[in-house]
Amino acid sequence: MAIKRYHYARDVEEALSLLLAYEGRGALVAGGVDVARGLPGEIEGLIDITAAGLSGISREGGRLVVGATATLEGIRTSREVKAYMGGFLSEVMGHVATLSLRNMATLGGAVVSAHPWADIPTALIALGAEAVWRNEERTERAPVEELYARPFRAIFRRAVLTEIRLPAWDGAFAFEKLSRNAGDIALVNCACGLGLDAEGKIAWARVAVGATPYRAERLVAVEELLAGEVPSEALWEEAGHRAAAEARVGDDMRASAEWRRAVIPVIVRRALERAGRAVMGDR
Amino acid sequence: MAERKVIGKPVRKVDGIPLATGQPVFTLDVDLPGAAVGKVLHSPHAHAEIVRIDTSRAEELPGVLCVLHHGNVPRIPYTTAGQGWPEPSPYDSFLFDRKVRFVGDRVAAVAAESEEIADEALRLIEVEYRVLPAVLDPEGATAPGAPVIHDEEDARGIHDPQRNIAAAIDIRVGEIERGFSESDVVVETTCEFPYVQHVPLEPHCVIAYLDEEDRLVIRTSTQVPFHVRRIVARALGLPLSRIRVIKPRIGGGFGTKQEIILEDVAAALALRTRRPVVMKYTREEEFVAARTRHPMKVRVKLGAKKDGKLHAIEMDVLSNTGAYGTHSLTVLSNVGSKTLPLYNKAPHIWFHGKAVYTNLPVAGAYRGYGATQGYFALEVAIDELAEKLGIDPLELRLKNHIRAGETSPIFEKIGEGREGKAQVIRSCALEECIREGAKRIGWSEKRGKRLRDGPWVHGVGMAIAMQGSGITDIDMGAATIMMNEDGTFRLLVGATDLGTGSDTILAQIAAETLGVPVEAISVYSSDTDFTPFDTGAYASSTTYVSGNAVLLAARKVREEILRVASGILGEPPGELELRDGRVVSTRTGKGVPFAEVGHRAMYVTDQRHIIASASFVPPESPPPFAAFFAEVAVDVETGRVRVVKFVGVADCGTPIHPRLAEGQLEGAIVQGIGHALYEEMLLSKRGGVRNPNLFDYRIPTAADVPDIEVVLIPSEEPTGPYGAKSIAEVGINGPAPAIANAIYDAVGVRLYRIPFTPDRVLSGICSPAVLK
Amino acid sequence: MMKIYFELNGEPVYTEIKPGEMLLDLLRRLGMKSVKEGCRTGECGACTVLLDGKPIRSCLTFAAKAKGHRITTLEGLGTPEDPHPLQEAFLEAGAVQCGFCTPGMILVAYHLLSHNPDPSPDEVRAAISGNLCRCTGYVKIVDAVLTAARWKREGKWRKER
Questions:
Q1: Distances, alpha carbon B233 to alpha carbons A6, B89, B218, B510, C105, in Å
Q2: pLDDT tens, residue by residue, B526-557
Q3: Which of C55, C76, C97 is the last residue of a domain?
Q4: Which chains touch A (3 or more CB pairs under 8 A)?
Q5: ipTM
Q6: What whole-number distance in Å separates Cα of residue B561 and Cα of residue B611?
Q7: What letter would DSSP give residue B238?
């Protein structure tokens, strides 16, 4: 590593101006986990943003706003996060890596790194989370799902991700993950959410699968299949099979496409079941 | 039997406090002034000839001290296997060679002022390779026209280099064909063990330097300090007397540190630069260029009479030794020699197989040493045989396993790379182990019930196993005990504590014999200049072999003490005994403290140092026995397998330190569970390791470990020190077959290849045979 | 090079570091040899230290991040003359085999017991699950942490450094 300087940015403006001044030879450091694991050789300056005031977690109405440098363990144990969507996000964080890595890694880091095998993007996409970032001109925002459809790595070479905004949903979410052992990444994961209308029919549904081994994607066709229906075991089953048909699935050294296709119906069904139970329990 | 005061007691580990408080006791915890960093350049090709190597740009880099490669070191064939003499592994390795034989093979090495400079220097070495066709499949290694991996003329001891056969074995007892034709039931099964690795938490590391007398000191994380000295002397053409090897505390070995992996290069760099040289493998290098368990295909054919008596056993082994033949013959031999005697009732046995070279990672010694691979196949086959016979697999094993007072022709037929030696089992509590384990797992309540808990279906399975205690007539341990004038003792042993607690156990044996608490014994181990010889920590040898040496030395010291005390007390030695740090008259009860004995011997009368040495060569290798029971739950919708409970019951003779013995069993079982469920080194089409990291080579974490119950059922081994046998390895033999058999009990899927991944389990569940 | 100030095991440290240096290397350079290198990718946990009381991986933490913070290594918990009760418990339970994972294990256990004095065996397993041990099979490590927790509840942790 040819790191020449380590900066401690006091606020977003300073972080951004340093990043721009390095013209591609600087890198932002929050937890530092991904930076330390795979730093490109051309990086000369590291810009630490953990003291830039981006670690807050707050509720705004039903919404949850999480600063980009909030640590995963901080999020997992936060009272605000536990109160949001029945603690769904806190539960997801519990699936990610291990305690000492969660004490370092940040939500912003997870969003920017966007590892295809990661759990957080799956959950954020299902939740319809919005990313907020600051670039040279202005503050911009976009749903995480949409961000990943854009050249987001290029964006964050010249911008500072500042926060993730999570909308309020009238309903419940559940997360499922299959992995090799404790602390492992997902071999495949999914996050599903449901809300019911006054007649007990599904008012809205959100379904995302990830680590297929491709980056998480929303399965709109499955959501449409669910909307307007009355919850039932048969419906979850059908949604699961539809999810397997819709998802882009592949082989990697960790699992075969065939297995992934066989288990997506199972985890989607299990997540829908749990979300459904939670929603109905609310009533 | 006299009451034992130290043996069997949970004394504190003699190195416990330094380890628990994080003192600088490991190889790399010392900083030597002026130390340089050594690094290895690894081959990117599975099989290639080095046509040209240009190190000039690397050598010109400021801070580079030297670059070694095949062009500037002597060419001496040797083996990296740290084994006894004569060395049973072929001499097919060189410090550096003109040819590379696997992705990760050594091409060159650099010493530089810093790690960064060393890395940069490696990048500046220009190597032109002529890529050769590679053998990437052990099945095809012996085919006519297959590339010859060891075509060098100066290699020695290779069974058939032209056919890539490193070693072969063919042992017959009785008439196998008749055996099967006389059998009422025959089953045949083939099980496959992939590349798995030891993963000691501390990777290989070494510091080599020249001392004030210009002798070469090698401070290294090794299981075999004396073999390191001998092999480095050979590889570098140095007199053995010029080398001192020191083993400090080491961070786990499990066999991978029974190999000379970095010591030879570090020593060569230190000699060339005349600077201390520090070398350590990264975790990635550990996976790519250290050692692995021998991947194997083991075919087992069993024939039995209707009543369940085994009548014929055939075992056919294809072992993949990778690019070098280290431990190839002895691991292959152990597949049979450590398994077949367990079922000694069969009069007809054929054990045959070969270890082949491939252009793949190098296999070596790994806890279990072939027995683990053998038991996976054998114990799955026994389960299948039981099913076919309609006999409870537990009863089938009870009907056939070896017992005290019995023997097996295999003991005589297979030894350490040569013929073995007849041996009678003197202690065996296997039957009690099986019965106790069955009770604890709930065998009769749970087996065949397929209890369901949501998508999880439960099943139970079992396996039994044995190992050995050291290598008959080959291993040797020696010990020296000296008395200090204050009545305490110094115990010097060549034995190598690799974390097992053997220093503590040896101190206990000395303390018991000398009638003192363990605190009165200070242990110094594993320093070739200052401790007597020991073959090292492998083959489950230390407690039994080195322990017997300590016992013999302690007895001699006891005689000396009695002699001196007899002069003080005025009574014949025969009337005296050692008790609680005193010599006491059995007649009068009068006594004299050791401090007085020591003081008198050293300073007062008939002056001499009370000191004695003894050696022990095991005339036999008493096996420890164990029974393993797994309860698994299989998620029938995803194929995931959870080990709900695991019971391991072992007979290791009289445990010297039960808690340490349990720790050996628990640790081995969890490694075995890792092998069974997750562990596998995945190889690319070019022969490289695809998952050379702990991110994708998963080993068990605390959260994966089920309810593990281990029980020690003592037996009294008459040839062991205080009745002890070994315990280090036997525990790793059971998990894979016990779990495979439990999965079959749960969901009716037979798995013949580990690891039992969700992928494989689910495809078994979904197969037409199971779905019906 | 840059200079940073931080607190190491209760003592002030003012030292020069390289801007890209890892905390693992800095701590070992400062003599804290209990901090072990097992993988450098954050998987094994042998390099675990506490930053402001929370376990982190020093192999993936830039040394510069220590600036202004409290770092605790195993050396800060107990000494050979005066071992910490957790260290005593590890020895009593037989939880130390090779000892290479022990420093990190004890530190995560210390962190667990600092906010949960009465953990269940499963809570202990979860808390230490990020720290790999290849020797023990974890059984006796879990026992040790439960023993230390009991001692703590019984008021046997004489003093806290």
A1: 48, 17, 12, 33, 39
A2: 999 999 999 999 999 999 999 999 999 999 99
A3: C76
A4: B, C
A5: 0.98
A6: 10
A7: -
